[in-house]
Amino acid sequence: MYLVTVFGNLLIILAVSSDSHLHTPMYFFLSNLSLVDICFTSTTVPKMLRNIQTQSKVITYEGCITQMYFFILFAGLDNFILTVMAYDRFVAICHPLHYMVIMNPRLCGLLVLLSWIMSVLNSLLESLMVLHLSFCSDLEIPHFFCEFNQVLQLACSDTLLNNIIMYFTAGLLGGGSLAGILYSYSKILSSICRIPSAQGKYKAFSTCASHLSVVSLFYDTLLGVYFSSAASRSSQSSATASVMYTVVTPMLNPFIYSLRNKDIKRALERFLDR
Prior knowledge:
- With 274 residues, the chain is mostly helical.
- The chain has helices at 2-18, 25-42, 45-54, 61-94, 99-102, 105-131, 148-153, 160-193, 198-232, 235-260, 262-272.
């Protein structure tokens, strides 16, 4: 699954970069999403595979903090890139005549840069807050990676401030991004309903169907993790659910975009025929 994720997303990046017809804002954001997905799954899966191979589940304190930092960073980036892609589809469908003027290369680069900056700052804040906590020696994390919430529960010192910051940033960044996506799609749906012909409606909807599928998969699995862990209080069910958004979702993204998108299909065929 890890190899499929890496090679699948790598093929998307190579197809977009090698085909001049795909040098548009939508595919620029898609290639960034594929890069983030490779990095996101690479923060946890290689270590897990090594643990299985060596039959050793040890991780150092420094390694745990590092893994946590990069996990939060790329999870945040996934969230922001999906939001930016929703805005791109909103402009394309609701303001088609001004699309290339609004979504110019400068704005596209700025949106990706802002996504990186916000993700880095959030990840840095969360990781630095953990560094101030006290831990006993030889702790056992009931998870397959250093999941932020699980690490907080093992701290010997007071974690009230950490929990406040965690829920505040999750509500502000995650909730804000989800609200932006829902607003964009409400406007998109309204615009599609006003298109008189059935063929026009289908064409407009098909341009955002892949993104909508990826968004649904990402947020459904992510919310499922936290609702299931809150309901059952079982670390095993939380770890099992986490596999969905850390491994399964990044693996399925290339399939969703390549199977539902004719431009990507053609670009992949041309690239593989070289």
